[in-house]
Protein backbone atom coordinates (compact mmCIF):
# COMPACT_ATOMS: atom_id res chain seq x y z
CA UNK A 1 0.00 0.00 0.00
CA UNK A 2 2.89 2.39 0.75
CA UNK A 3 4.31 1.94 -2.76
CA UNK A 4 0.97 2.69 -4.43
CA UNK A 5 0.61 6.23 -3.01
CA UNK A 6 3.76 7.65 -4.70
CA UNK A 7 2.86 5.85 -7.91
CA UNK A 8 -0.64 7.31 -7.83
CA UNK A 9 0.83 10.80 -7.19
CA UNK A 10 3.16 10.45 -10.20
CA UNK A 11 0.30 9.31 -12.44
CA UNK A 12 -1.91 12.20 -11.35
CA UNK A 13 0.89 14.72 -11.90
CA UNK A 14 1.56 13.35 -15.38
CA UNK A 15 -2.09 13.50 -16.38
CA UNK A 16 -2.45 17.10 -15.16
CA UNK A 17 0.64 18.11 -17.15
CA UNK A 18 -0.77 16.46 -20.29
CA UNK A 19 -4.10 18.23 -19.77
CA UNK A 20 -2.36 21.59 -19.36
CA UNK A 21 -0.40 21.01 -22.59
CA UNK A 22 -3.60 20.15 -24.46
CA UNK A 23 -5.36 23.25 -23.08
CA UNK A 24 -2.44 25.43 -24.28
CA UNK A 25 -2.72 23.92 -27.78
CA UNK A 26 -6.45 24.72 -27.84
CA UNK A 27 -5.77 28.29 -26.68
CA UNK A 28 -3.11 28.73 -29.38
CA UNK A 29 -5.50 27.39 -32.04
CA UNK A 30 -8.27 29.76 -30.96
CA UNK A 31 -5.84 32.69 -30.90
CA UNK A 32 -4.62 31.89 -34.44
CA UNK A 33 -8.20 31.54 -35.70
CA UNK A 34 -9.04 34.93 -34.19
CA UNK A 35 -6.04 36.53 -35.88
CA UNK A 36 -7.03 35.07 -39.25
CA UNK A 37 -10.65 36.19 -38.90
CA UNK A 38 -9.73 39.76 -37.97
CA UNK A 39 -7.10 40.22 -40.72
CA UNK A 40 -9.46 42.12 -43.08
CA UNK A 41 -10.31 44.56 -40.28
CA UNK A 42 -6.59 45.19 -39.71
CA UNK A 43 -6.05 45.55 -43.48
CA UNK A 44 -8.41 48.51 -43.70
CA UNK A 45 -6.91 50.08 -40.59
CA UNK A 46 -9.91 49.78 -38.28
CA UNK A 47 -7.87 47.92 -35.68
CA UNK A 48 -4.11 47.82 -35.26
CA UNK A 49 -1.76 45.63 -33.31
CA UNK A 50 0.10 47.78 -30.83
CA UNK A 51 3.86 47.65 -30.55
CA UNK A 52 5.02 46.69 -27.04
CA UNK A 53 6.94 49.49 -25.27
CA UNK A 54 10.04 47.30 -24.88
CA UNK A 55 10.22 46.98 -28.70
CA UNK A 56 9.71 50.72 -29.18
CA UNK A 57 12.65 51.35 -26.83
CA UNK A 58 14.73 48.76 -28.68
CA UNK A 59 13.96 50.44 -32.01
CA UNK A 60 15.18 53.79 -30.66
CA UNK A 61 18.55 52.40 -29.46
CA UNK A 62 19.14 48.67 -30.00
CA UNK A 63 22.77 48.77 -28.87
CA UNK A 64 22.48 51.21 -26.00
CA UNK A 65 24.52 49.92 -23.05
CA UNK A 66 22.55 49.13 -19.89
CA UNK A 67 22.52 51.84 -17.23
CA UNK A 68 24.40 49.65 -14.75
CA UNK A 69 26.93 46.84 -14.87
CA UNK A 70 24.74 44.62 -12.69
CA UNK A 71 23.22 41.46 -14.11
CA UNK A 72 19.69 41.91 -12.71
CA UNK A 73 18.62 44.76 -15.05
CA UNK A 74 19.99 42.87 -18.06
CA UNK A 75 18.13 39.69 -17.13
CA UNK A 76 14.93 41.69 -16.52
CA UNK A 77 15.14 43.37 -19.92
CA UNK A 78 15.85 40.00 -21.56
CA UNK A 79 12.70 38.60 -19.92
CA UNK A 80 10.68 41.58 -21.19
CA UNK A 81 12.03 41.04 -24.71
CA UNK A 82 11.25 37.32 -24.53
CA UNK A 83 7.68 38.16 -23.48
CA UNK A 84 7.28 40.47 -26.49
CA UNK A 85 9.16 38.38 -29.07
CA UNK A 86 8.57 34.81 -27.97
CA UNK A 87 11.22 32.26 -27.10
CA UNK A 88 14.81 32.75 -28.22
CA UNK A 89 16.71 30.27 -30.40
CA UNK A 90 18.19 28.58 -27.34
CA UNK A 91 14.76 27.73 -25.93
CA UNK A 92 13.35 24.26 -26.37
CA UNK A 93 11.23 23.79 -29.45
CA UNK A 94 8.25 21.45 -29.75
CA UNK A 95 9.26 17.91 -30.68
CA UNK A 96 6.65 17.47 -33.39
CA UNK A 97 4.97 20.10 -35.48
CA UNK A 98 1.24 20.18 -36.12
CA UNK A 99 1.33 20.12 -39.92
CA UNK A 100 -2.43 19.72 -40.30
CA UNK A 101 -2.99 22.78 -38.14
CA UNK A 102 -0.47 24.81 -40.13
CA UNK A 103 -2.13 23.78 -43.42
CA UNK A 104 -5.56 24.71 -42.07
CA UNK A 105 -4.24 28.08 -40.91
CA UNK A 106 -2.65 28.75 -44.32
CA UNK A 107 -5.91 27.84 -46.07
CA UNK A 108 -7.89 30.06 -43.73
CA UNK A 109 -5.54 32.98 -44.32
CA UNK A 110 -5.84 32.53 -48.08
CA UNK A 111 -9.63 32.55 -47.96
CA UNK A 112 -9.87 35.53 -45.61
CA UNK A 113 -7.24 37.56 -47.49
CA UNK A 114 -9.03 36.95 -50.80
CA UNK A 115 -12.13 38.72 -49.46
CA UNK A 116 -10.55 42.13 -50.07
CA UNK A 117 -9.87 42.91 -53.73
CA UNK A 118 -6.66 44.89 -54.32
CA UNK A 119 -5.58 44.05 -50.75
CA UNK A 120 -2.09 45.55 -51.12
CA UNK A 121 -3.46 48.85 -52.39
CA UNK A 122 -6.08 48.96 -49.63
CA UNK A 123 -3.37 48.31 -47.02
CA UNK A 124 -1.23 51.18 -48.36
CA UNK A 125 -4.12 53.66 -48.53
CA UNK A 126 -5.43 52.77 -45.08
CA UNK A 127 -1.99 53.00 -43.48
CA UNK A 128 -2.07 49.37 -42.37
CA UNK A 129 0.99 48.54 -44.49
CA UNK A 130 3.13 51.32 -42.99
CA UNK A 131 1.99 50.33 -39.49
CA UNK A 132 2.99 46.74 -40.22
CA UNK A 133 6.40 47.89 -41.52
CA UNK A 134 6.97 49.89 -38.30
CA UNK A 135 5.96 46.85 -36.25
CA UNK A 136 8.31 44.57 -38.20
CA UNK A 137 11.17 47.07 -37.79
CA UNK A 138 10.52 47.17 -34.03
CA UNK A 139 10.59 43.36 -33.92
CA UNK A 140 13.90 43.31 -35.82
CA UNK A 141 15.36 45.88 -33.40
CA UNK A 142 14.06 43.83 -30.47
CA UNK A 143 15.82 40.74 -31.83
CA UNK A 144 19.05 42.72 -32.20
CA UNK A 145 18.68 44.13 -28.68
CA UNK A 146 18.06 40.66 -27.23
CA UNK A 147 21.18 39.30 -28.94
CA UNK A 148 23.25 42.25 -27.72
CA UNK A 149 22.01 41.88 -24.13
CA UNK A 150 22.48 38.11 -24.17
CA UNK A 151 26.07 38.62 -25.29
CA UNK A 152 26.63 41.15 -22.50
CA UNK A 153 25.10 38.78 -19.95
CA UNK A 154 27.35 35.92 -21.04
CA UNK A 155 30.45 38.10 -21.05
CA UNK A 156 29.62 39.32 -17.54
CA UNK A 157 28.95 35.73 -16.42
CA UNK A 158 25.37 36.50 -15.40
CA UNK A 159 23.25 33.57 -14.32
CA UNK A 160 20.70 33.09 -17.07
CA UNK A 161 17.25 31.73 -16.23
CA UNK A 162 16.33 28.40 -17.83
Topology:
Elements: H1 4-37, H2 39-43, H3 53-60, H4 71-85, H5 99-113, H6 119-126, H7 128-155
Give an account of the 3D structure.
This protein has 162 residues and is mainly α. It has one domain. The protein has seven helices and no strands. It has helices spanning 4-37, 39-43, 53-60, 71-85, 99-113, 119-126, 128-155. The longest helix is centred in the N-terminal third of the chain and has 34 residues, at 4-37. It is flat, with a radius of gyration of 21 Å. It starts with a helix and ends in a 7-residue tail after the last helix. The model is unreliable at 1-13 (pLDDT under 50).
Q: Can you give keywords for this protein?
A:
162 residues; mainly alpha; 7 helices; 70% helix; flat; disordered N terminus
Annotation field: number of helices? 7
Distance between the termini: 37 Å
How many domains comprise the coordinates?
A: 1
* Helix-strand pattern: HHHHHHH
Number of strands: 0
Average pLDDT metric: 75
Low-confidence stretches: 1-13
Report strand %: under 5%
Instruction: Provide the gyration radius in Å.
Output: 21 Å
Shape category: flat
What is the helical fraction, as a range of percent? 55-70%
Sheet/helix structural class: mainly alpha
The major beta sheet can be summarized as:
none
Short description:
The chain is mostly helical and 162 residues long.
